[in-house]
Amino acid sequence: MADELEARIDELYGLPLERFTAERDALAKELASAGDRDGAARVKALRKPVVAAWAVNLLAREDPDRVKELIELGGTLRSAHRRAVSGGDVEPFRVATEERRQMVRTLTRAAEAIVERDGGAPGAATDAIAGTLEAATVDEETGELLRSGRLTKPVRPPATFAGAGLRVLEGGPSPSRRPEPEETPKPKPDRPKLERELSAAETRERKAEAAVERERATIQDLDRKRSETKDRLRAAEAELRGVSLERKRLASALDKLGDR
Description:
By secondary structure, the protein is mainly α. It contains 9 helices and no strands.
């Protein structure tokens, strides 16, 4: 039974985005009717993916081999990074970074095509799609989320590969010689200050995301109430038409009696 529910949830995340909410609610209602209250509550709590996350979810279903290749490249990239920062050869890190750049670009285009196929405009989601794919090569947990195809929102790539002066190595060929150091070195960034600012930014981001989710839920609730109100209006209009016809019939019958 648990495996069947997991399969049904997987189906939800593979649906066209506009069908997610209705199908989720229908599944929750079905489970509740069958007496599975825990399953119904779990399904009802599932978040509708944002466009970028939905596109990546479908990408993981439609092109699992290339997504798997990207995730496995993440392991190679992390190993190369560890060797580079430990004083080893930086060339494998350069090569893996360039390979990641090209693979992320290719997969991002594929995800954009999925959005376009569904009638959407991918432009606003492009950066979030690419960022999520990059994050899957840096963070193993994100890689598993990508593989599962159940993301609900895009993931921001961590800055794991930005330390030790290696950012300048990404995507470029190995230099023939090291550049001469500057006579007057630039002051190093204040790491504790940057960490505090990063923590504050992350807190603001979480609050902003929560506000977006609240407003989205409000809109969905208003849409549901609007739909219900339309149904009641149509029913009332149908009843009015029926009553009007009955009144006209009775009035006609009464007129005929008066003529006799």
